[in-house]
Design brief:
single chain; mainly alpha; 7 helices; 2 strands
């Protein structure tokens, strides 16, 4: 865990975990908020599920493509590309998240990064460890990701909650701020990816 490739991969996967799950977790909150809020979509549970399923195709496709190209372009470029998708997606979401198209497009853009970054990081981990230690090395990487996910989601919801209420609904500015925080986290993932 303390050798250079592992420190770098753990920093990158921590930034990934902190940042890239915010979009998926805020989407249903905004989509379920009633139209009277001025920003919510008032979607049903089924409609929200279909929107999430549609955006998850981006992760599936990106992971498949990333697995095919990681040897040709290298894990550093693949992770950096994923981080750039994250920054772009969160900027889109911060700018507009009050329609199904804007919410879906921004989230799908972020989720392309969710397909690229783990593919890149895990390829570095597995190339730098003996085969008998590959399970432990992968598990440590996933613990960093899961810990960061818990912190990132908590921060996102604290930002939304901290922005107060607009009548009975969360203030829309909280969602915008949460997306800006996530964009900053994706920027850190971009910097961390350059050291893979």
């Amino acid at each position: 865990v303390r050798r250079r490739p592992f420190v770098n991969t753990n920093l990158c996967i921590f930034a990934f975990g902190f940042t890239f799950f915010t979009a998926t977790l805020l989407l249903p909150v905004i989509a379920a908020t009633p139209l009277q809020s001025g920003y919510g979509l008032g979607l049903t549970t089924t409609e929200i599920g279909l929107l999430l399923a549609a955006t998850s195709v981006a992760t599936l496709a990106a992971a498949w493509v990333g697995g095919r190209v990681v040897d040709r372009i290298g894990p550093r470029l693949l992770a950096a590309t994923g981080a750039c998708f994250g920054v772009a997606g969160y900027c889109l979401l911060a700018a507009s998240h009050s329609s199904a198209v804007a919410l879906g497009l921004g989230t799908a853009t972020v989720l392309v990064g969710s397909g690229f970054i783990p593919t890149a990081v895990l390829s570095v981990v597995l190339r730098n460890v003996r085969s008998e230690k590959s399970g432990v090395a992968t598990a440590v990487t996933l613990v960093f990701r899961s810990s960061a996910l818990a912190v990132g989601v908590t921060v996102a919801f604290a930002v939304v909650s901290g922005s107060g209420l607009d009548g009975p609904f969360p203030n829309e500015a909280g969602f915008t701020r949460a997306y800006v925080v996530a964009a900053a986290g994706a920027s850190f993932a971009l910097v961390a990816s350059l050291f893979l």
